[in-house]
Design goal:
alpha/beta; Rossmann fold; 12 strands; about 30% helix
Length: about 325
């Protein structure tokens, strides 16, 4: 069913131990990913987007761990699996990772093995999860490259990563992620460091794959324009919390949180006559010295005494939530 929830994250807390000091990078994050839909997760660097993705994939470093909450994945059979209870290196997690839930990592330069041909790297993921010969896996790898519009795909299977451009490397990363036709694809900044023309091509390819395979996508980005183009729902993150959540129409048409409003104001618009782009004043506080109450208060023009307390999530309209004490004033003046 198209609107069935395939991934449910509830009250997720993920922390790291740095020099014996515990730091919480994700604080009480909750969201749903529906079958065949795209969820955009947006925010500045360091807001917890990638840590949330790595928590779902059980790819946290040794000094990081989920301290609270649940991540529930629903298989095609209806079986529900609580991912946070699985061992990172256990058989069940290995069966899910790369086959049922795949991830496109942020930097293809460091994600591809420089000493193996790209055909072998794509085929490796297929053979890890399916009983096929190497020849059959390479044939599928060739077909994936053709679907991703890489010219002379058969010849390029034997090429090494350094022989590909940045945009082509990202296509190879998508091929590896899509090799086993996963039900969920987590795309972590898939167009970072690519020029706008290549970005548009990558996004078009991802939309094509989603349309043809019905894949659910969690799109992680700092680019509000990209989210507006691809996503059905959007979660805006700041300092490890989701500060606004709703459908793309709700959030783009009526942004309620001052941080969301600031991100939208900072998007350049073709033909704009301003000399300078809008920027949110101040900088993100350090996790080491996390402020009490609302973490955005020091940068917010609507901050009041109430902001000394952590705001709770309230529903602005059905399905549209915001975590802000003064969202009504911000909306009226936004």
């Amino acid at each position: 069913m198209k609107d069935d929830i395939i991934l449910q994250v509830e009250n997720l807390h993920t922390g790291f131990l740095v020099d014996n000091v515990p730091l919480e990078a994700v604080s009480g994050v909750s969201f749903s990913l529906k079958a065949g839909r795209v969820l955009g997760v947006v925010g500045e660097s360091g807001c917890g987007k990638s840590v949330t993705a790595h928590s779902i994939m059980q790819l946290l470093p040794k000094y990081g761990r989920i301290t609270e909450g649940s991540i529930t994945y629903t298989r095609a059979t209806g079986e529900k699996i609580e991912i946070q209870k699985l061992r990172r290196t256990g058989n069940q997690m290995r069966q899910i990772r790369g086959k049922e839930i795949s991830m496109i990592f942020q930097d293809p330069m460091s994600s591809l093995n420089p000493v193996y041909p790209i055909g072998d790297q794509i085929a490796e993921n297929i053979r890890e999860h399916e009983k096929v010969t190497k020849r059959e896996a390479l044939d599928r790898a060739r077909k994936l490259l053709e679907d991703l519009e890489i010219p002379s795909a058969a010849e390029r299977l034997g090429d090494y990563p350094h022989q590909f451009s940045g945009g082509m490397k990202q296509r190879v990363m998508i091929a590896i992620a899509m090799a086993c036709n996963p039900r969920i694809l987590i795309a972590d900044e898939p167009t970072t460091a690519l020029d706008v023309t290549i970005q548009a091509q990558i996004i078009a390819l991802m939309k094509k794959l989603q349309r043809e395979h019905g894949t659910s996508i969690m799109m992680i980005t700092h680019n509000m324009g990209l989210v507006a183009e691809m996503a059905d729902e959007i979660a805006v993150m700041y300092m490890g919390r989701i500060v606004e959540y709703g459908s793309i129409r709700q959030v783009m048409k009526s942004p309620a949180h001052p941080y969301t409003q600031g991100l939208l104001k900072a998007v350049p618009v073709l033909g704009m006559k301003k000399d300078r782009l809008y920027s949110i004043k101040g900088s993100t506080p350090s996790l080491v010295d996390r402020p009490a109450g609302c973490e955005f208060a020091s940068r917010c023009e609507y901050a009041t005494e109430a902001c000394r307390q952590v705001p709770r999530a309230v529903e602005v309209e059905p399905g549209h939530q915001v975590r802000c004490w003064n969202y009504k004033e911000a909306t009226d003046n936004g």
